[in-house]
Amino acid sequence: MSLTLAEKKEFVKLVCLCLLWYAISSVNNVVGKTLLNYFPYPNTLSMVQLLSITVYSEPILRCLRIRPHSDMSWSYYVSVIVPLATGKFLAVLFSHISIWKVPLSYAHTVKAMMPIFTVIFGRVLLGERQTFSVYCSLIPIVVGVGIATITELSFDIIGLLSALTSIAVYSVMQLFSKKTMKDTGIHHLRLLLVLGRLAFFMFLPFWVMFDLRKLMVADDLVRGDSVFFTLMLLATDGFLNWMQNLVAFTVLHLVTPLTYAVCNATKRVSVISASLLFMRNPVTVTNVAGMLLAIAGVFMYNKAKYEANLRRRQEAILPMVTKGNPLLHGGTMGIDWADKISPVYQPLHHVNHHGHGHANGYSNGFARTVMAA
């Protein structure tokens, strides 16, 4: 079936946005790794990114006319928002420690294990059960990361543990953001600003105590480069990090969750490829094979998870359809009719991000936004 002119324009727009997203993310990671190679202060890099979220997000939120308030009590703020802000800081910090200690390609291969942590924490903390196909899709991720780890020529245990800690914290934040969105009705970009700003001010004393004192007495910080160049890289990294959050949010609102998940996994491939091309860290054929297997597992997980969610929604809709229409009782007509309308619910999930009790649309948006870092 041929596409209309409007559909062709939307497709071209999506492709351009994805390419922009991949380019920004790849450059952001390369800049961060380059900076950390001679500026070993991951805490400072994390604070700059949180400050960038604080500075750049507010004007965008005003342009989008996203309301600045929500139904949030002080006790809820302390018991939920403060822990989420703490998690935001720790996830960003450990992510930077990981790319400081190990090659970018390996760090992003380990980050492909996020679905495993999401499934584990969802089962332990929220009692969520997954389908057999979802569990099976986790196997190539584990095997792929294992192969990449065994064959990694620049392996570092601190880098591995930091990457695992980062994705574990991100996974918990993804799960608990669902309840936050549903309880408060806050827009996920507004929540990103709230968490980024709170995390920055909460951990500013921590940065002053540790990094600032070292920066004031260090005389070999830039290793021959100018201080201005270092500051420029810091500012560039912060801006690019904020930009990829914004582009990721835009892509999310144009496509279904499954398409977005595939785009996100493809983005990780582009980051790994860019790191191998520009950073030229040594790799073996087996190492690359492990990376590809892990990424393939992520694609399988995204597809299995989406199909499981779609099947669950259809099962919830079918009893209401048959109960509400007496003409559909007593035969297969109800099932046939439901099969015909079921495709409607696939695009509905991405069109109505504020639907389904706010939980699905908002949590997907927030989770993908914070993971974009």
TrEMBL record:
InterPro entries: EmrE-like, Sugar_P_trans_dom, TPT_transporter
One Pfam match: TPT
Main location: membrane
Sugar phosphate transporter domain sequence ranges: 13-302
GO terms under cellular component: membrane
PANTHER family attached to this UniProt entry: SOLUTE CARRIER FAMILY 35
Name used for this protein in its record: Solute carrier family 35 member E1
Organism: Amphibalanus amphitrite
Lineage start: Eukaryota, Metazoa, Ecdysozoa, Arthropoda, Crustacea
